Amino acid sequence: MVSYPLPTSLETLAPMAAAMENPLAVASNAKHLPRHKLFMSFAVHSRRSGKLQVVSVHQRVKAASSLYSDCDVDVQKPWKTADARLVLEDGSIWKAKSFGASGTQVGEVVFNTSLTGYQEILTDPSYAGQFVLMTNPHIGNTGVNLDDVDTRAITRRLRQDGSLIGVLSTEESQTDEELLEIARKWKIVGVDLISGVSCKAPFVWSQKTHSEWEFHKHQNQVENFHVVAYDFGIKHNILRRLASYGCKVTVVPSTWPASETLKMKPDGVLFSNGPGDPAAVPYAVETVREIIGKVPVFGICMGHQLLGQALGGKTFKMKFGHHGGNHPVGNLRNGRVEISAQNHNYAVDPASLPAGVEVTHINLNDKSCAGLACAELNLMSLQYHPESSPGPHDSDPAFREFMELMKASQK
User: What's the predicted TM-score (pTM) here?
Assistant: First the structure.
């Protein structure tokens, strides 16, 4: 079935409607019909004609125009047909059109509810090992036609059944059964995904948030703290925010020994975001354990979860996680509500935490733990992304709190 752009002239459309023998169409006075109603009559006719057919109209109109309603006309489609398959572990198969790289890849399928910022989402190291399904109109969920993948249906499946392993392939040599077997054998729980996205050697970061994007332009940031940032898949905008608050930032790999960090005599240490299961990286948990209590610490996302484990708590895998820039968070200290940017499939179990560790924030959608603090150990953490790139800027004051934590420890 082929469709071409319809002529916009009502004088041209009127004889076409008559040719369709559509009782709703008007030939002689078509020019007086509102244009949207005339188009509607075509749609109604095509659905009532007894066949599932798409009306094809040639753009070049001869005389009174030529109408072709025969769907068997052998015309080559001017667009790319489905050449890829997404096979989920539940056995469902979704045909799609590919672009960019070809081949076969396996990963966990998650959905993101952000309104915008898909460039940052697609380049976020925290999504390593995952496929991202965009769910907002004009990004990836604009409705369904005969050649589309219904991304809304996939999202509903993930919400109902939880995140699913999927295989995306452009290779015709692979059967559906073979791809399904790959999906069902691959596991993401217990896999170290941090080591694949971390830097390989320390480096100094000095770039600030660009003036065009700086939303605290009137603040005078002259703190001059030295912060060591562990790269578990760190987003550059976290580093930019630290630099914008006046920090000298040294970024170190995920395997960097705690002893080497303490030799640098930093004013504070940041444990960054990152992909995967925090329980799969015991070496990182041990590094966090060796540093807390010696210098002020700030954990973000994966760093938050590693802090929870280092303090003696437990983490667990969520049904489908939190991915998006519209998650409401409650600050239990001041009663403030923040709309936050989040990206994680694991969470800290607050019931497993020892005495003295305070839950400072909760996700207002499901009441899961979204922030921790321990005054005795000079530490703070957030499960979400205060740099908010993309996302609202409600949580940026968390960087100021980290500055105050470092300042207080020097007294």
Answer: 0.77
